Amino acid sequence: MKMFMAGLVTETNTFSPLPTGMLSFEEGGIYHGDATAQPLQYWTAPLHIWKHAATERGWDITEGLMAVAQPAGPTVRSTYETLRGEILDNLRAAMPVDIVLLSMHGAMIADGYDDCEGDLISHCRKIAGDKVIIGGLLDPHSHLTDMMMENATLLVPYKEYPHVDVPDRARDLFALAVDAAEGRTNPVMRDHDCRIICAMHTPYEPMRSFVDGMSAREGKDGVLHVGLVHGFPWGDHPRAGARSLVTTNGNAAQAEALAKELAGELLSIRGRLNRTHPTIDAALDRGMEHAFGPVVLADVADNAGGGAPGDATFLLRAILDRGITNAVVGIFWDPMAMRICREADEGATLNLRLGGKYGPMSGDPLDLRVTIRRLASDLSQRFGDLPIPLGNMAWLECDGVDIVVNDLRTQTFHPEAYTGLGIDLASRKLVCVKSSQHFHAGFAPIAAEVIHVATPGSITPDYANIAYIKRAPNYWPKMEDPFA
After folding, report:
1. What integer pLDDT is reported at residue 276 of this predicted model?
2. What DSSP state is assigned to residue 110?
3. Residue burial 90-126, b: 16+ Cβ < 10 Å; e: rest
4. In a 3-state reduction of DSSP, which class is residue 224?
5. Where are the alpha helices (DSSP H) in 375-480?
């Protein structure tokens, strides 16, 4: 058996002010067939897993390009075409193959390409031929398109949000591909539009039971895989929104019926999906009422993982204006401020302009008198069990508030982003994180309470009023009954 594997990963926020070009991929990581020879990281984990599993079977393995960029605005056309071209050249050189496995996101949009993943899969299909098994691993915040469904043999989205199950889903995709390649199964996929656009946090009810119910259906009565694509709300795409996805062993009618059933189940619980987000002032009031901390406040609208810049100042300004001390806020992406801090060095006290640099949704910059408590350049934070680099970092202190700054744009996933600098979170009253939900896996176990805050920013969770042009308005919560 011969396997080819590659990856191209970014999530496109069509409302983001930040373009995604080759520099973004170079910063995120471009590996020319050697990702598995480098240390394991979050986005390269699927390739490590697939190579290990294939090696155990004695297979012939060809590893192609793996390229990753932090979510931002649309990808520059030449950048996408260059990266796609390298993957396709890698595949041509590897032919003939039995299996093609691709690690992707599912919501990548480039200039001239509304469906990069579907485009990539369709080109791979033309090269590989009809009989080759082509499997795609997807983030659930995907736009599940007809082009993906028609050209892939298997599509497996992560089940959890936060996405702590990437290794498990990579193993699922590999096992499904093996069974299909060796003739034990004949995968048939069908999906169904749920007509829902919102954040679906799987640690909480009702999504916890919904995900567990999906998993319980797998491996029974010919059902090979059950998944849910949540959709990416801030990508203006005709297929934005949730879609159920079912793969059966050769039974298209069964797959279609179960996908429709799951969509109906999700629609029936839609009124319980959206979690309440208090305003900044209400969240600060609630947090300060606790006798002990840390109370974790999520700056959901300035999440770099959704394409926001990561430099919005609204929450920090409110904390400083109210004279709140014993709080931690971060991670601010501000390469200019980071450079100044490195020049000044640890222990220095200086005037620093922080944040507010990338447009109106970042707020106004803050002119602060700060002391540099710690600098570091070799730290990482975990997402689940997988490491993510943090770049150059600074721990600043201003009027009793700790501020964490870096120059490698990322959301806050784990307490290590703060504790690695020496910040004792257990002694802090408020811990503010720039993240929508992925922080939950790491921070919830240490939190007195977790509060998702309705901050202004690039990905404000007002799902009924996102300024779509390409997405039709027939979805909940835009319409109470989107199938009426």
Report:
1. 86
2. B
3. bbeebeebbbbbbbbbbbbbbeebbbbbbbbbbbbbe
4. strand
5. 416-419, 440-443
Q: Find all residues with CB under 8 Å of 298, minimum gap 6, and list them.
A: 432, 433, 435, 436, 437, 439, 450, 451, 452, 453
pLDDT for the residue numbered 410: 97
Q: How far is CA 190 from CA 185, 195, 247, 445, in A?
A: 16, 16, 7, 37
Show the beta-strand stretches assigned E in 336-442: 349-354, 366-376, 380-383, 386-389, 393-398, 401-406, 430-433
- Cβ neighbours of residue 346 under 8 Å, at least 6 residues apart? 372, 373, 374, 375
Tell me: the pLDDT tens digits for 334-370? 999 999 999 999 999 999 999 999 999 999 999 999 9
Task: Provide the residue type at 372 as one letter.
Answer: I
pLDDT value of position 39: 94
**CB of 400 closer than 8 Å to CB of 326:** yes
Residues 228, 463: Cα–Cα separation, whole Å: 19
Tokens standing for 229? 């694509």
| Positions in the chain whose pLDDT score sits under 70 | none
Tokens matching residue 195 = 């007509």
DSSP character string of 199-212: ---TTSTTHHHHHH
- Give, in degrees to the nearest 5, the angle at Cα 357 between 356 and 361: 60
